UniProtKB/TrEMBL annotation:
Source species, domain of life: Eukaryota
Record protein name field: Dehydrogenase/reductase SDR family member 11
Molecular function per GO: 3-beta-hydroxysteroid 3-dehydrogenase (NADP+) activity; 3-hydroxypropionate dehydrogenase (NADP+) activity; estradiol 17-beta-dehydrogenase [NAD(P)+] activity
One Pfam match: adh_short
Role played: NADP-dependent dehydrogenase with broad substrate specificity acting on 3-hydroxy acids. Catalyzes the NADP-dependent oxidation of L-allo-threonine to L-2-amino-3-keto-butyrate, which is spontaneously decarboxylated into aminoacetone. Also acts on D-threonine, L-serine, D-serine, D-3-hydroxyisobutyrate, L-3-hydroxyisobutyrate, D-glycerate and L-glycerate. Able to catalyze the reduction of the malonic semialdehyde to 3-hydroxypropionic acid. Catalyzes the conversion of the 17-keto group of estrone, 4- and 5-androstenes and 5-alpha-androstanes into their 17-beta-hydroxyl metabolites and the conversion of the 3-keto group of 3-, 3,17- and 3,20- diketosteroids into their 3-hydroxyl metabolites. Exhibits reductive 3-beta-hydroxysteroid dehydrogenase activity toward 5-beta-androstanes, 5-beta-pregnanes, 4-pregnenes and bile acids. May also reduce endogenous and exogenous alpha-dicarbonyl compounds and xenobiotic alicyclic ketones.
Pathway entry: Steroid biosynthesis; estrogen biosynthesis
InterPro entries: NAD(P)-bd_dom_sf (IPR036291), Sc_DH/Rdtase_CS (IPR020904), SDR_fam (IPR002347)
Entry coiled-coil feature ranges: none
Organism of provenance: Ciona intestinalis (Transparent sea squirt)
Length: 255
């Protein structure tokens, strides 16, 4: 099925979505679910090989995808990402600021390089994404910004103090932005996953912190698909409905 008219199976037909952090895990799954729902997707990350693979997979499934190499901490690259997406696919309707890193880190071990990196990617990556799409969305009087927060944006987790702080930042920015955007017809959603089976743990250098605090092996955690499906649901609501935040947890591990 194709064409620009939304149908029950493809409610996002005719829409353009940009997904950062699409080379892996949650972002990859969000891109697939948005494509399955009919959106044309522009996928971004630093790892071009993985983006190429995902583009092929989407196209094999009759979807439309373009990819752009982008470090979300570099403002100019994020601006270029949106320019590229609009030139190749059309005006951006849905911006998913998903790229992020998480490193277990005990504050007492003072791993300040890890803290800086976490703040740069998780905070600046999101403000760069918002800044790049918002002028166009305001001009068109429509759009949906989806920020991948975390359950750590609602509660500080030991061993993840700085990470939790970055996700509180995402929540605070999103909440204020949502109010400012009402007059422009733009929706803002925070997705708040609990533990999801991805590569996110692979960047931790403070193994003492991970050993002490990571409990993700204690129960059946979420699959990236569980989050991709939720994002497709959130952005497929009727125009007057806004899902402002969505907390998605493993059944056995509520906060
Ligand atoms: N896994 C989990 O349990 C949870 C994860 N989250 C959040 O979900 C999001 C995705 O994480 P997840 O899929 O788990 O982790 P992954 O490590 O699997 O994916 C992270 C993605 O972010 C991208 N990325 C990292 N740094 C940069 C950068 N500087 N510029 C551009 N892209 C970057 C990576 O791409 P590349 O390296 O190619 O640039 C990759 O595509 C994050 O925001 C994370 O905080 C929230 C709650 C739970
Ligand atoms: C606090 C957490 O570990 C959460 N699963 C996340 O990765 O954001």
């Amino acid at each position: 099925m194709s064409g620009k008219f939304a149908t029950a199976n493809q409610p996002l037909s005719g829409k353009v979505a940009v997904v950062t952090g699409a080379s892996s895990g949650i972002g990859r799954s969000i891109a697939i679910h948005l494509s399955n729902a009919g959106a044309k997707v522009c996928i971004a990350a630093r790892n071009v090989g993985k983006l190429e693979e995902l583009k092929s997979e989407i196209e094999k499934n009759n979807g439309t995808a373009a990819f752009f190499q982008c470090d979300v901490t570099v403002r100019e690259q994020v601006m270029q990402l949106i320019f590229f997406a609009e030139k190749n696919l059309g005006p951006v309707d849905i911006m998913v600021n998903n790229a992020g890193v998480m490193m277990y880190s005990k504050m007492s071990n003072v791993m300040m390089d890890d803290w800086d990196k976490t703040i740069d990617v998780n905070c600046k990556g999101v403000t760069n994404g918002i800044g790049a799409v918002i002028p166009g969305m305001i001009k068109r009087k429509r759009g949906h910004i989806v920020n991948t927060s975390s359950d750590a944006g609602l509660q500080g987790f030991p061993g993840l103090a700085v990470y939790s702080g970055t996700k509180f930042f995402v929540e605070g920015v999103s909440q204020a932005l949502r109010h400012e955007m009402v007059e422009h017809g733009i929706k803002v959603t925070c997705i708040q996953p609990g533990d999801v089976k991805t590569n996110i743990l692979s960047h931790t250098t403070d193994l003492e912190a991970q050993k002490q605090y990571d409990g993700s092996s204690k129960c059946k955690i979420l699959d990236p698909d569980d989050i991709g499906r939720a994002v497709a649901y959130v952005v497929s609501q009727p125009d007057h409905v806004s899902i402002n935040q969505l907390l998605i947890e493993p059944k056995e591990a509520p906060i």
